[in-house]
Design a protein that fits this description.
The complex is a heterodimer of chains A (295) and B (422). Chain A is mainly alpha-helical and 295 residues long. Chain A has a single domain, classed as MetI-like (MetI-like fold). In chain A, 72% of the residues lie in helices and 0% in strands. In chain A, 29% of the residues are buried. Chain B has 2 domains: 236 residues, 3-Layer(aba) Sandwich (D-Maltodextrin-Binding Protein, domain 2); 167 residues, Periplasmic binding protein-like II (D-Maltodextrin-Binding Protein, domain 2, 3-Layer(aba) Sandwich). Chain B is globular and about 65 Å long. Chain B has 16 helices and 11 strands. With 422 residues, chain B is an alpha/beta fold. The chains are: A mainly alpha (295), B alpha/beta (422). At the A-B interface, loops of A face helix 4, helix 5 and helix 16 of B.
Chain lengths: 295, 422
Amino acid sequence: MSSESNPSRWHIAILLAPAVIVLLVLFGGGLIYSLLQSLGWQPLIGQTRLSLDAYTNLLFSPDYAEVFWSGLAFSLWVSGLSTVISAILAVAIALLIYQTARGIRLWTFLFQFNLPVPHLVAAVGMLFLLSQSGLISRGTVALGLTSTPADFPILVRDTAGLGIIIAYVWKETPFIGVIVLGVLRSMSDSYDPAARNLGANGWQRFRYILLPLITPSLLSSSLIVFAFTFGAYEIPALLGVRFPRGLPVTALRLFTDADLNARSEAMALSLLITLMTSLVIVVYLWLRGIAERLT
Amino acid sequence: MKHLRHLVIVTLLLLTMGNAWAQDETAEAPFETPPGFASWDDVLQQAKGTTVNWYMWGGSDAINAFVDDFYGTVLQDEYGITLNRVPVADTVDAINLVLSEAEAGKTEGGSVDMIWINGENFFTLRQADLLYGPWAQTIPNSTLVDWESPAVAFDFGVPVEGYESPWSSAQLHFIYDSSRMSAEDLPHNYDELTAWIAAHPGRFTYIAPGPGGYMGTRFVKQVLYHVSGGDEQWNGEWNPTLYAEWSPKLWDYLNAWKPNLWRSGETYPANENELAQLFANGEVDFAMTQATAGAGPYIAAGLIPETSRAFTFEQYSIGDYNYVAIMKNAPNKAASLVLANLLLRPDRQAGHIRPETGFGLGYAIDINRVSDDDRAMLQKAFADLGDGAADPAALSAAFAPDMAPESQSIIEADWEANVLRK
């Protein structure tokens, strides 16, 4: 290798500096400011005494505890289920496309066409489509299957978060799928015929050859989806009910509370959400370590 | 003539309920000129040739066009001021912008001059001391405003103290579709509504009290007035004992509706637009409005059927005013003052109540304080409201004032704990 393509550490540091500075100043600065506010630092209203009150309030006080714990359970349920369903569907569809002999480019295009659609647009679309007076409901009325909006099943703004999960699955399946498909495509063509020759059946070829090959990227993309859906606001805000509601929705609600004192709880909650998504990354690194040792 | 009498009744009502507060609140001497200006001419002089940044909720195309045309043109032609209307998705976005500027130490030359504001956000900015003032009683047209009425002098119970000036008034009442039900079948009070709900399962819901759903909070307060047998006892200072006595009965009353509410009360529309959508889609039979023009603005916007009509119960229809406030770090206070003054001009007031403006809210000025010609104009505008509006006489007869400001967050939190989560 030439010296240009193998720069010194010093060189790398300089090249990375712009990106690192932006990250540190914008992200780190925001994080520190949020931390201060969560500890009660609010000079605007003459509040400069630091304490952990906002955190204890959130976790234990009668005003907030029920909303916090139910919100945590709700967010975990929605993100967990969305991630699992998206991952399974993504692998299934990616495998189907991978094995399709003809029209592979068309199928790939159709599979990933909704990737650029913003989550907000997806949420509004689901609302128009799936609500009790939505397009599908109007269709079933026209077909005589239902007679009033109330006859149509409650699929969005439901207490179980179904609408949110449906919207996330629609958005995240192609995301995971495209990554898995990429791995499948870059795989050597010889594995499958070789396994076939050695007498492996379809399940065995999937379980012992394809799955181990796609696991690292499947795992990392699934964890990205989990972390993203856990902290995202717009879909739960539009497709959820008032109670139970996801943690990010509660965080913004507290942030925009007319009483500026509630901002401390809003920041504390946001930091707790950040902490939990960071935990997901730690879990990911740990799982990857195990996977590497196994292979 | 009939309408004039009704307006007088409203005014008298506002005056009588105001006596308790009015005595200690109006004792202070009126302000002479807006802080920082030598005279009103000085204000006009400094405003000439400038641009004013007015932040307001921009969710209605009709209102946006109305503001640009109805105020922007006059500002330009008569005062040489350019109106820069800045639309925000939610007023709280503008509030957060002002708060962020303050946190960043920007005490001068901010980006916001004026905000169309309600009591909650007014409270926030007063709490952080970020408003310019007191000025509201120094602008020429403030003499047309009845500042002695507590409905004007208190915004969601927060004392105005000259830090905001009224634009229009609003009163919460209901909308039904005359093609779906006849006027004889309408409920006239909350007990009749209870019976109606029981007879029509799934056809009624109300807006969830809470941020963005203040009409829902107001609705629940109206029910509280009914349950506790009157609104007089709730006037004035917040009374925790009275609330502790009556609130359990209020929650029982609302919870008793639940099995027969839309979606069995497991969720509620978050704001008036969601409710209007359910109404337009035929999922529920009543919507709510605060507009003097009633169903008119919704109809003009094509959101609900043209056969929609507004009506009010016989009692407990809570009304109040909405305001504009000027920021402490506003770059152009002079032009903001001119605009606030223009909003109160009788010809603008007569125009803003029309349903086709999308605004359709009531007067902020007291029609007994204007000239005879102006009074005739204001009366005529009232008479021309059209079929979508509720009977003004019924509205003024049903008028009730709002409660003390503490009630807002207490009722919202307690409703969530005792009704929504039950």
